[in-house]
Amino acid sequence: MENILEVKSLTKTFQDFTLSNISFSLPRGFITGFIGPNGSGKTTTIKLIMNLLKKDRGEVSIFGLDHIRHEREIKNRIGFVYDESHFYEELTVERMKRFIASAYNNWDEEKFRSLAGKFSLPLNKSIKDLSRGMKVKFSLAAALSHKADLLIMDEPTSGLDPVVRSEILDILHDVIQDENKGVFFSTHITSDLDRIADYIIMIYKGEILFNKTKDELIEEHAVIKGPLSLLDTSLKNNLIGIKKGIYGFEALTAGKEAADALVKAGAAAEKPALEDIMLYYTRKENGNA
Amino acid sequence: MLNLIFKDLLIQKKTLGFLGLYIIILTLAFQSVGSGAFTSIIIAVTYQLVITAGSLEEKTGSDIVLNSLPISREKIVAAKYLSVFFYGLMAVLAYLIYAALLRLVPIPINIPPITPESLAAAFTVIMVMNGIYYPVYFKTGFVRARIISLIVFFAFFFGLISLFEAAGGSSSHGVLQAIAGFFSSVNKTQFSLMLIGGALIFMLASLILSIKLYRGREF
After folding, report:
1. What is the CB neighbour count within 10 angstroms for residue B205?
2. What range does the domain containing B139 cover?
3. Predicted model pTM
4. Residue to substitute from A62, A80, A102, interface B, most B β-carbons within 10 A
């Protein structure tokens, strides 16, 4: 089955930042987490995919179609949730919904009503009077009410309390039960992805560091804790993002053999969380081994 | 397209609510302008609505939502141009209503009637003004375009008031008197049609330029 999204050699240069030649793809039927610290290029990548920024080079195809030549057709099948609402503050939820609904060919009013009920959306309230959580829920309800095949979300859960975040993650889990749909979820809160993501793409300083299934990523990495003396041996070469303390060090290692060798030499190995992997890779890129 | 225009009206409900008060104040303020008061009021009201819509869109960063929806950039631009005519017509309608109400008040107020020439002058100016403003708006966004808009508005607004004062004989400025003299000597219907036609061509050229500029805009 063709990928739902393919990005090839995408490049965009700003005065102080470059998104360098990035390539990745999203298979259908899965949630792909797009991680990286703030300022890594997540939002830039999403804006380029949505044609809100103009690429310098590269290709983006969504549903097998060029994202610029078939822009309207593609956007009819994309649901989007951004980190800020950008909706007209003066309009009520109902009025804003009507405006959004008029733009889509496949608006499903029944679905919207059902989600609005589930999220307890106050339809007659002005957007400006909604809490951040409610604004995100409204975005999500709108994104899910036009039979979208691809959901693109840019930091949707940042600044939300754990209860709302959990509700949103549950909804995404339901969405992905349809094997033809896909979710592209950018975040720096990796614990959300620990719960629901199938694939993880990490971007840092405008470059893709890895693109793997979450299980593969967690399986092949380990958090290593050991004495400082180990850092004087050749085993140090197997370590990523070393963090030294007074009595010992902590680092990440990739590959089972490397982890086994370190454990044999006296270190302890733990299964990493996505946050560990992101942090240690970030440290590595900053020059810490 | 109509949804985009309707949305621009809905987001400035508060401004629309004050439209009547605005028209009454301007009518009272322009007592010395004579027949030009109607033209000046239509220009001022339209300017106010265009600027308010732009500022509210800027405040919410709504270009991001509009351009994430399946709406073409051409449609977004064209709707803004069409909304100028809607605002102009709304201003005329509101003027008719409030002028009728003011006539009921037992105080001596000069309420100029709407003539085909003053209507043509009003629509010519709002088309030219917005024909200059919108390409800058679509290229740079509201914040920078607002400055251009303000300059263009005051140039046209006070230029026109001076011209009407000259036509009414209350200005001694030679050039203005010469222009006013020229206007009074030509066939008014033909000249009005020429003005409207010229302004429409200008606005069409401006629309094409705005579409080109907005296609390349980044958010």
Report:
1. 12
2. 2-215
3. 0.87
4. A102
